[in-house]
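User: two proteins, same treatment. go.

Assistant:
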Amino acid sequence: MKKTSLKSWFKSGAPGVWLSAGAVSIAVIMTIGLLAVIAVRGLGHFWPADVISAHYDVPGQEKHVLVGELVQSEQVPRARLKAAGLPVPDHGPEFMTRDLFKVGNRDLNPSDFNWVIGEWLTDQTKPADLMTIERREWGNFYGYLVNVKENGKVVAQGEAAWPQLQERIKRVQAISDELDGLEKSDIGAINHGIERLRLQARKLELSGKLDAEAQADMASERAEYDARYKDIESRLGALHAEFNRDSLTARDANGKEVEISLGKVVHAYQPNAMGVGTKLGFYFQKLWEFLSDDPREANTEGGIFPAIFGTVMMTMIMAVIVTPFGVLAAVYLREYARQGPVTRLIRIAVNNLAGVPAIVYGVFGLGFFVYVLGGSIDQLFFPEALPAPTFGTPGLLWASLTLALLAVPVVIVATEEGLARIPLTLREGSLALGATKAETLWKIVLPMASPAMMTGLILAVARAAGEVAPLMLVGVVKLAPSLPLDGNYPYLHLDQKIMHLGFHIYDVGFQSPNVEAARPLVYATALLLVLVIALLNLSAVTIRNRLREKYKALEE
């Protein structure tokens, strides 16, 4: 009886259902777990951690004061520490604690991250007046505020120094924002105009039309740019003088005093004296800076806004390019091509293209798009700029085209499947009412197949937005000096190089000289890349669902 029931249970297919459900559950749990680990390690980086002050007493060495943030703690076998050359006693517990401290003060210490033995730390305290200074270079500084200076003269010290410091940091930040606006916007527009005049003069010279009148007009326009630049230059000089006016004197844990210009300070705060509410406000401020600022310190500090912008812009351009080409190819293969050996061979080739390694597309994009197509465009339309390339160099356009080439097989296959699901009776009914084949295709078939097209686009975005290998060859760089979208004609500069979240993760994680400082940013950027791709996909899914509801009645 039991054998019969077991046999019938297997025949019912229940084991396969349970196996599939278990596999899906495990995959979902692993995915959620991975995202949770990334989120905790990445988002935790922006929380203002307490700063610990302790005496570090290494056997046989002079005791000194250690100040820093506790980053990581682990249990290590005593034998392993002894083998590393540390003066560990032979007798004692099998395991000892090893702590990783971020001690900062990179301009004073050989390294801003140190491993220490937890058992050798004594007198651990968290002084309320111990401050963290986040600097534009040289990383964090941990110490005590001595005084605040203006033009080299002390204006506040002791308890009165801290509020003065906060006011002057806000003033310096406002000046910094004004300087950035002048340098990036105003001076950028002037440089763009002068370069345009130079290319215009070269173009007229090549065509033999550079007469005295044209030279006079360009000289007059150039004089206007020079006058504007001199005015901005004088403003910049005054702002730089104000920017570097104030400074502070700080003392490290071992009594050494250092003077730091407030122009190099981003934030100064006392984490041990901050309450939960204050820390929460500071946390969201840091998180916003991460999303909106430019990177600094070899991409290990600051924000990643250029990488976010480059990723979204490139993906949107790729979607605009890949959708019409993929849909047209699918329509031809399904609706117009004679179904025979050649068509089947084309479909096999399309399916195989979907499995080609991404780096192969990058090599093709570099060879064909950049060198052949871009070089030809330069010869035909931008001869005045040669030998400096305009489109004959990696850039946003070629990166988008390479991704479109990589993703077009996915769109073709998804669109073909959508076209195949449309009932033949709808086509025949439309033709019977006098519509042409083109009208039937345009007004009946394509609208009903639009959800399948959006499915193909979703899959294309999901694959293309996270690609890194081909982009390293066709337009993505470590640090782009400016965004490809600005106020200078033609506003969207398809020839410019861009930053990308995927490449930023690779660069920070594997090319950074300061691995410990870069590690939290790798997690935070990876989480952001997942969220960006999810947001792009969610937008496409929403559009697809609306289209599906719109044409659901016709399908029934």
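Protein 2:
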Amino acid sequence: MSARTPIDELSNSYLAKLLELTPELVTDTGLPGDETRFSDFSPEAASEHAALISSTLSRLNTLTPHDADDAVSAAALRERLTTQAELIEAGETTGELNVIACPIQSIRDTFDLMSTESTEDWATIAMRLENVAPALEGYRASLTKRASTGPAIPLRQVEQCALQCEALTGADSAFTKLAAKGTYSTLAGVSLRRRLEAGAQSAQEAYGQLATFLREEIAPIAIATNAVGRERYSLFSREFLGAQIDLDDTYEWGKAELAAIIGEQEEIARTLYGSGVSVREAMDRLNADPARSLHGTHALRTWMQSTADEALATLSGTYFDIPEPLQKIECMVLEDGTGGIYYTGPTADFSRPGRMWWSVPTGVEKFATWQEKTTVFHEGVPGHHLQVGMATYMSESLNEWRRHGLWVSGHGEGWALYAEDLMAELGFHEDLGDRMGVLDAMRLRTSRVVVDLGVHLGKKVDVTGTANLASFHGKIWERESAWEFLRENVAMDPSFLSFELDRYLGWPGQAPSYKVGHRIWSELREEARQRAVSAGEHFDLKAWHMRALRLGALGLDVLGEALAATSSTEPQA
């Protein structure tokens, strides 16, 4: 930055200490730091983090913002740290256990982002492999504490996480494959190769021990209930949105939104294939259409890249001003994966570009373009690649914490869904098959709102569909009714869908943040348009996009305040 304020300095100091406490963030951002270690997952770590938050907030309360941008930084830092302090105080960060976002996954997944281009890189990987076991030992201590002090751990999450641990213990585990890659590398000498093999073996054994611990020590005292209740859910919702919402209103909105999506899908099914053809039958026909199918991961990667590149070229200069470092996105395919599709941002110096990843399960060779075209826009341009990449690029106006250490799911995923909707608005889905894909994705995200809120708030099932779902009508939402509801509304392989449901049950408030965030983003755009009209001005959509993106990631309440603080829709650097 050209001129740092005391609030910027405090934010950057907080990030520096966070990087020390969270080495995985070093790998994720590409910022300087120690990549040989992992976070301390022991009970003591929560106290250390709480002390850092407390001291940062105390210092922040003594500072006066220098200007409007500085006020946004202060508001963002206060909002994020206050929520995190509440989570720590409630015991929610100690011994976190769920199927998608806990130490079990973060320890394993950080290796995917580590560089393998030099001997030093492989030596770093070897040291980090050796540190898997100590990291998991601290995590077990936290699980033990949580088991005795609460909040209670649901049995379903324990069982599924034990299975994930066991999958990392076999001869074909991710650790074995990583070590084999190092062994075959010409960069790794004999001694380093042996360290990699020994490190992989140690990591596998540590995960095996954790699986046994979960089954023998945690499962017997876990609870059958999945719902977290209104009080805990409200806190989780604020964490993922950075906004306070009316939970009951949002649940009703989700049901109404879902009905509208289904109605449009039914109309497309009739238009494409005639009266009497159901939405599911129409999707089956789309899947069987050779013109809408790809075969093999090479074809998948080529199609992803060409689709992303075309979007970037078309939108640049029209609806977005895309800086030169963001003119490149790499599409990656991971073999033997989980089925997930995700984005990883560029490093601070853009030496590693933004990347879209498709983790393809073993044996999957056929892919449907009608269903996944909108996903490319979600992860790439104008979705996460523009959003995350722009924040990284804004070194002259955003402090380091806002560029690299701030992520709010409702902001990030809400923008990505807004990006999908925008592409439909701009005519990129005029083909009715592609439009069905957009609606299919919307139906999933909206179904999440109903299921997540319904289960965790203990609401009664008040939607019907199949006879199986109708049998639950009037009863409290639970896993069985949620399963039937998702089977009715989500066109996804049953194994993937089962994982999705377990994700919702174990990570309350996160899944709805996509669609709720989308709702808030759309409302903010409409509010800006109305302000322009009221002032007798033309609403410049590109200018609004760039103003919003140049603010970086923010809690959605702070974002709304920042966008409303200026009467101009012109972007400000």
